[in-house]
Amino acid sequence: MEEPKWLEGLLRTNFFTICPKHRQSPRNECNMFCLSCKNAAFCFYCRSSFHIDHPVLQIRRSSYHDVVRVSEIEKALDIRGVQTYVINSARVLFLNERPQPKNSSHGAASSAPKTMSYFCETCCRTLLDPFRFCSLGCKVS
């Protein structure tokens, strides 16, 4: 996969910090990333002031992990092969690899019927469907 120049910055960015320029304002979490500027996360007010005409991704949280809506990122990046999920009625994908669940019921004592398993090619995380990667970060590794 040929990576756009902004992708590495997106995957390394820490989101959901308080914006230093708008500490006293509501909606001041840095949960956006500009594909043109390719630098730090920013908040709602920064977007209105500095990124009004730029392509921007809004990052969301699911179970303490960063996700992005498929409808936003697929306009800028080939996401084929990455597992997607429906969360709050929106199709999303995880930005980075998540830790493996500690307890798995795949042992011989399980009474559940055997089903086909799929695994991430990078981190071996179990996938729900026949995808190749569990996250965008695993795809680019």
Give an overview of the whole structure.
- With 141 residues, the chain is an alpha+beta fold.
- It has one domain (7-99, 117-140).
- The chain contains 4 helices and 7 strands.
- The protein has helices spanning 7-12, 44-50, 70-73, 136-140; strands at 32-34, 56-62, 65-69, 85-87, 90-94, 118-119, 126-127.
- A 5-stranded antiparallel beta sheet has the order 1-2-3-5-4.
- Residues 105-111 have low confidence and may be disordered.
Q: Would you kindly provide a brief summary of this structure?
A:
It comes from Capsella rubella. The chain is an alpha+beta fold.
Instruction: Specify the structural class.
Output: alpha+beta
Q: Mind describing the biggest β-sheet?
A: 5 strands, antiparallel
What gyration radius follows from the Cα positions, in whole Å? 17 Å
Number of helices: 4
**Order of strands across the main sheet:** 1-2-3-5-4
| Overall pLDDT score | 88
Instruction: Give a count of the beta strands, DSSP E runs of length 2 or more.
Output: 7
End-to-end Cα distance, whole Å, is: 10 Å
Q: Could you say which overall geometry the principal axes of the C-alpha atoms support?
A: elongated
In terms of quaternary structure, what is this? single chain
What is the N-to-C order of secondary-structure elements (H for helix, E for strand)?
Answer: HEHEEHEEEEH
Which stretches are low in confidence, meaning pLDDT under 50 for 5 or more residues running?
105-111
Helix content: 10-25%
Total domain count: 1
Strand portion: 15-25%
Protein name: B box-type domain-containing protein
Organism: Capsella rubella
Pfam families: PLATZ
